[in-house]
Design goal:
This protein is of the alpha/beta class. It folds into two domains: 129 residues, Response regulator (Rossmann fold, 3-Layer(aba) Sandwich); 126 residues, Response regulator (Rossmann fold, 3-Layer(aba) Sandwich). Helix content is 46%, strand content 16%. The strands form two sheets. Strands 2-1-3-4-5 form a five-stranded parallel sheet, with helices on both faces. It has a five-stranded parallel sheet with strand order 7-6-8-9-10, sandwiched between helices. The two termini are 76 Å apart.
Amino acid sequence: MADIMLACSEGENLGGMADILKGQGEAFDLIDMEITDPRFPGKKLDECPSVVISRFDGGDLASVKAMQAITLEHPCVQTVFITDKELSSAILTLLFNQGAFGVLLEPFSGAHAWQLIKQAIKKSKWNLDDMARSKELREHNESLRRRIEKLEAESARTNDLANSLERLTYFLLTEKYFKINKIKVLVISSNQYQRNLVIKELSGAGFTVESTDSSTGAVPIIKKYKPNIVVSDLEMEGMNGVELAQKVKGEKGFPPLHYVIVTASEDKMDYILSPETKVDDCIIKPSDAKKHYSMVARIAMGLTSGNV
């Protein structure tokens, strides 16, 4: 398929354009009708020439309307008009605003005409490349959108499953036949209200619970009491919860245990659960008393950690 289409009436030479193109060794298709002709073969444009060259017909601005129709169906095709009459500034502005690439006023030099045609071909190919990249980008974005929707759906199902598991765990903990009073928990919090609240919830679930208000004081208690699960605040005087976990988890003289930090700082969860902290789980403090079952269940899940 040639990059150039000459659309002109039979016998028309468009200012010698055919000879100019032949002189440059450039292939072209010749259509014996103007683009304003109702029979103009739009399907021929489906083969995507880069440039259409036709004579400008100023009557009722028919050439402008024909160019608009071409551009609508084939946005990468560039239109160059040839005219033997000098056009007014208003007409030229209209032509370029509607997408014409150029206008050649007869007589014109072969060098000037060829330079204009080469630029039009280059712009058409740039536009084609941009359209291809845009299509690839749209397809990529659509693929990402579908992937995100799939991940969101999977995440929702995972959250639903986790919530169901928490409710089931809490139900089992509160059943009188489910005995876990041999499981020892140490609660560490400098906030007496929070400490008593956690103790009440865990004791009610059947755990044997001890507590302390100091991370420093917790160290000898852990050695002597040998808890299966430690539940501590993050922010405490002396050592914080992470520093305490690093000191007692997996270290000589300390029992194997499941270490849980309870915090109101949701934005610190990634840090708290990073491998170097040795923390097994991080639970956001419930703002609603009805949600305490979730906290108790999450703590109880430490029973399956392998440390208990």
